[in-house]
Predict the 3D structure of the following.
Amino acid sequence: MDVVSSINHLEARNFGQDRLPDRDTRYDRADEVLEACGALWESWDADALVIDKDKGQFADASKIRYVNYAGKWVKTRGPLTVPRSPQVRPVIMQAGASDRGREFAARWAEMIFTLQHSRVDMQAFYRDIKARVAAAGRPPEHCAILPSLDPIIGETESIAREKQAYVNELVDSELALALVSAHIGVDLSEYPADQPIENFELEAGARGSLEVILQGTRAHGLSLGEAARRFATSELAPQVVGTPASVADQLAEMFHAEACDGFILTPTVFPGTWEQFVRSVVPELQRRGVYRTEYGGRTLRENLRD
């Protein structure tokens, strides 16, 4: 379950509000939502189901509880109308990048999707989150950090580079700027496209997306227009380019360098990128011993921690 605290004032209007609350308040409210959901998910004991047709009994009512959660924003009576799942609660995924968002992730997230511009940025994010998870009283290995990558694979290195150049040239500059504007909640058409974008505070929008754009402009001196074009191509996620073997080498190197616990693939071609990756790169990763060859658990959480 991907937990998002909302990023756009238009979302607030769908629920009768003029604007979103400030970022910290949104995460405070998200804390309450997950506290309430957690109580509801656990309102059935593991052995509450009876399913005895002869006695006409579906469940043991003594093993199903009201939860009566009451917070500042969220109140629920419960219990759920369905039995607990084998996982009890779904695996929680989160993608906050602000300081408050990272605190939220450290408390709740079992997977974190993150956009980072380079391996150095990945490593810094990795160290920060793992430290926060430990400070929150959770085992750091119970939170998998998964940066986004854009794999571009070719039969040879030169073919892969040609594919990269072709894909990157397809982006329309005006649409790219509109995409970034939608992500960060700021109309960037008011800013000079030929100059680097400066940092600014966001009341709404995705702070993580802005951070990646700022990383790109600082690292390579990109103008706003150039950064927008790259963001529209792969959300400024690193493009891992090469043959199946060299792509596997690059991924394994990042994994062993404690830049990540795995990856989220951002496809330039859908679904072709995923198909090519599974057929050509996964076997290479398996030969290196950094990708499983079978699944040992019955649930996503079991396999995530395996």
In short: Residues 117 and 215 are 6 Å apart (CA to CA). Residues 23-41 form the longest helix (19 residues).
